[in-house]
Amino acid sequence: MELQRHIQRRRKSITVGICLLLISAAIILISLNTGTIRLSPLAVWQTFLGYGSSDSQLVLFEYRLPRILVTMLAGIGLGVSGAILQGITRNGLADPGILGLHAGAALGLIVFVSFFHSMKGMPSLLIPVFAFAGGVITAFLIVALAYDRHKGVVPIRLILVGIAIAAGFSAITLFLSLRLDDATYSFTSRWLIGNVWGRNWIHVNALLPWIVIFTPFTLSKWKVLNAFSLGDEMTSGMGIAVNRERLLLLMSAVALSSASVAMAGGIGFLGLVAPHLARRLVGPMHQYVLPISGLIGLVILVAADTVGRSIFQPNAIPAGVVVAAVGAPYFLYLLVKTK
């Protein structure tokens, strides 16, 4: 009976994954055709095959495709990181933004622009590093303050401490941003509300290694995340080093979320919504939740960026605003449901 249930869940997850891939392909095709200069699906296909005009090649390969790839990678990173945090805290309201990791990444970005005053060229490769450093500092403070010498890291404290640290770091970030010149301040203000600014191939190259390295590592830890759902005592009884594994997974979540928001802007609620939708579709087992969360994050972020660029032309709306418009009501729904 258990084996049959496992087979059914696996088949369902494969079906859901294929559907999400098809939806992703459709949204990407629409996104490639969206902008000031419109390209028909036929023109896009011809350009990919090398038969497009020089203008089509410029628009497609130098402007739209890098931006779409950045949103795809960032969506995967935020979706998977949200699933990690909800798994290690056993709290359905955990999210990189709520936990304070986005605030730490934002502080790292402000420190970067304060020193380099440029977000273009080779220096932009360092942006995920600075954002990751800010996220690591945040995670270190959260773990240190949530640690109990008898119980180890207390999951519920992670959320409460994260909210407090996020408020403090956001205040520091705002103070430092007010000291920037007008052009840099304009960039940081757009970044903070979720404007996808990574639009060149160098930004794709800066984000790609983080997603390629830490996503497979997280997927390999699905058994540990499943064990965490049973409680720390049961997990420890299974021979798993609870604190060590929790810290490793937390660092993986920090890396994925920090690098993603460094290139895609301060996208909120995506790490909250994607894992919840994944569990509704494929159940609670993390071997299915993790990849489906990544695909849902990809679909939501690419769709949000496409909607923001197309419906509200010529004044584009940041993707973070579109995601928040959906995520905030869902967050309130979860708060009411968990009472």
Helix content: over 70%
Distance between the termini: 34 Å
Average pLDDT score = 84
Poorly predicted parts: none
Cα-based radius of gyration, to the nearest Å: 20 Å
What's the helix count?
14
Strands in their spatial order, largest beta sheet: 1-2
- Described by its quaternary structure, the protein is single chain
Q: Count the strands?
A: 2
* Structural class designation: mainly alpha
Could you name the key traits of this structure?
single chain, 339 residues, mainly alpha, two-stranded antiparallel sheet, 14 helices, globular
Would you give an account of this structure?
With 339 residues, this protein is mainly α. Helices cover 76% and strands 1% of the residues. The protein has helices at 2-32, 41-48, 54-89, 101-116, 127-146, 155-177, 182-192, 201-219, 222-228, 232-237, 242-264, 270-282, 286-310, 319-337, and strands at 147-148, 152-153. A two-stranded antiparallel sheet has the order 1-2.
Could you outline the blueprint of secondary structure elements for this entry?
Blueprint: H1 2-32, H2 41-48, H3 54-89, H4 101-116, H5 127-146, E1 147-148, E2 152-153, H6 155-177, H7 182-192, H8 201-219, H9 222-228, H10 232-237, H11 242-264, H12 270-282, H13 286-310, H14 319-337
Antiparallel strand pairs: 1-2
Helix pairs in contact: 1-13, 3-8, 3-11, 3-12, 3-13, 4-5, 4-6, 4-11, 5-6, 5-11, 8-11, 12-13, 13-14
